[in-house]
Every structure is written in structure tokens, then in C-alpha cells.
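new request in #modeling-help
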Amino acid sequence: MKKSFAKYFSALAMLLIVFQFSACSNRTETANQSAKPMEKNDKTEPANQPAKPPEKKDQTYRSVRGGVIAIVSSDELEIREHGENIVCKYTEKDNKLRVVVSALGTTRAMYFNITPNGLVGEQGEIYYDPSNKDAERAAMAATTMPSCQNNLRQISGTKDQYALDHNNKGPSSFSDLVPIYLKKTPVCPAGGTYIIGPLGHDAQCTIAGHTI
Ligand SMILES: [Zn+2]
């Protein structure tokens, strides 16, 4: 009895191994199959591709806060920020830039996503292409958004406070709010104009993308 069981199990084990092998080879086949169309797509693109790397060389990106990333060669770039100038090695892969920063005795890697508007760092910091005005506007709006949003929340909140003290009538201008409800007139960091608006509605900024 024991022997036949052993035989049965070894046969089963063999079967399982064969199944696994066939499953593996199936998987690699399907992987190859799905990879093939990609290769084909790559082959249709070379018309556009060779132009890309030379374009990137000598490309300069700027941040709203005054930082600069200048691509100086196919593997070196310069980061200029806070009066410092650091030369870094970089590699580009899958629309990501990996930058090795050696400064103050430490080495670390920084990653940037390459987007149509420029380079976007891990903390969301944007380095835009200065020749692209739309990218500059988008970077400006995105970078200044959080502090403008704070202002909008503050203005909206004081409208209700003002109404409580004034027979449910909202403020008509900042002179109604300053200095009692707001210490001073809030200023949009991107130069937008604030619209206090009617009660029950959020205050607005004229910069596109600056909303509560
Ligand atoms: Zn604003």
C-alpha cells in the first residue's frame, strides 16, 4: 500500500512540476507577445526620437522660487539654488530624471518626473521650461496655490463673522473687514485680485487654479 501511495505522490509531484513549467512557459510567451507590439510601436517612433536628446542639452528649467536646473550635457546638469551651484550626474529613464546630488559630504538621489510643463520634483516642486509661457503660468499658479488658498479660507471665514455682527449683511469691501476681522488686506502671492463675493459663497481669486 505504502509503495503505491509513494508512486502516486511522486507521479502527482511530477505532474505539478510539468504544470508549473508549462504555466511558466505560457507566461513568458504571453509576456513576449505583449512585449512585441511595444517594440513595434518603438520602431514607428524613431522619426521623432533622435531629435529629443539634443533638445534637452542646454535646456534650462526654472522654479518659481528662483531655482535653476540647467542640463549641460547628456549626463551632467547644474542645480543653482540659494546662491549655490552644484554639478550633478543624472540619468534619464521612463520619463524620470534621477539626479545624484553630492553636497556637504553627503550623496543622495533626487527624482524628477519629466512632464510637458517641465520637471516635477518629489515634493511637487516644479521646474518649468521658461520658453513655454503656459508652463510658467501653470508652475506659478501651482506653487502659489497653497498660500492663496489660505487667504481665501480666511476671507470666506471672516465674511460670516462680519455678517453675524451686521444684521446678516456681508462685507462689501476689504475696508469693512480690515483691521477688525482681518489684520490687513490679504495679498495673493501670484498677484491675483480677491473678490469677496456674496454671503454663502467662497471668496475668489482671479488667478486660474486659485480656488478653495
Ligand atoms: Zn491667488
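bot summary: The pocket of zinc ion is lined by residues 148, 188, 190, 192, 205, 207, 210 (CB under 6 Å).
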